[in-house]
Amino acid sequence: MELTPLSAISAVDGRYRKQVQHLDEYFSEFALMKYRVLVEVEYLLFLEKKKFVKLPAKVGKLMQKRAADFGLEDAQEIKQIEYTTNHDVKAVEYFLKSELEKAGAADAKEWVHFGLTSQDINNTAVPLSWKHAVEYEYLPSLLNLNSQLKLLARQWKDIPMLAHTHGQPASPTSLGKEIMVFAERIQNQIEQYISIPFTGKFGGATGNFNAHHIAFPKTDWIKFGNEFLDHLGLSRQQFTTQIEHYDNLAAHFDCMRRINTILIDFCRDIWTYISMEYFKQKTIKGEVGSSAMPHKVNPIDFENAEGNLGIASALLEHLAGKLPVSRLQRDLTDSTVLRNIGVPFAHIIIAFKSVEKGLGKLLLNETKIHEDLENNWAVVAEAIQTVLRREKYPQPYEALKELTRGKQAIDKKAIHQFIDGLKVSNAIRKELKTITPHNYTGVIAKM
After folding, report:
1. Is 290 a catalytic site residue?
2. 291-318 pLDDT tens trace
3. Three-state secondary structure readout of 142-190
4. Does residue 7 carry a catalytic annotation?
């Protein structure tokens, strides 16, 4: 069958194509070719800047334009060359040499890919495309999502809510604070993430600039390589084999997995709050919740996000564990694996969109939240016994335990009857009676 969203094997290229099709600018075979061309052209122009080659001014500008305007026809041409070379990077080299010939600069042809091995291009092109994808897509999406969480946290900061530890009623909290827990966790990981550098490899066949040095022994090629990658916005690894060792890329993957874990935790909590009816969900005309049960409004967006985050994390775990491992100075296993880094990235972007969509549907059900607090007066037992400890009352914990643990009907009346029976001053008795499940929420940091 012809490849369409209906015939695609991967859901990323099929069902979810509309949501993530823009990522083909970073992760498709076309994108890899485009970034390879960019690196090769920038390298040629850098050689000219360092006086190794002389290019007519119009040729340099033309080559820059060819890299900037690289399109599908150019990619098809490279692919056609590859059918003969059976080598994808060599095909890019021949494509650019042909472009120089067309521009009347045939004398400069042999400076294309001068002294390089394929991984000097790949391990610069891929980190560069990854950097752009992270900076233009991943971080903006994550920051927007976290901003949405912070806004909801502030909006709901004064909503008291029954907490649940071990699935049982516990000391009340604030709904906004519980949302802020996740916002803070994500923010902490973002700060770790942005501290990880984007690194590349550039040093010839086995990382020592062997060919460069033999041709121009007086040139400081280490300085040259450092400056070139810095010019592209990358940091050059100083000691490499034929390939980049991918440790920082693996660090990116690991940090993304931690963020995914936090969001899975968040999705499960919101799902649970919906099941507890703390939230209702907006209905959309024409939407169906169940093929059999007409009444259902399911939390499908949070379920979708959880599933996509799980797939992404599984792939990221493999990528982080595999890519830094290579036999001696090089094997080819990284090549095919590296082509798949866009897959977990796409699943994450799908998940972000699902979480945002789900958050947009939430309707706060304050009636149910209030009702649960009112039905669980036993949770103020902690408050009462703590005040009694302050007053040196004998065995207050044990007294409250006897009153509340495992008991069914602990309501306001039962708590106040207990307080009335205490041998304390009227002032303490009055203080204790001001405590309710609705105001026993502690103190919360500024959001």
Report:
1. yes
2. 556 565 788 999 999 999 999 999 999 9
3. HHHHHHHHHHHHHHCCCCEEEEEECCEEEEEEEHHHHHHHHHHHHHHHH
4. no
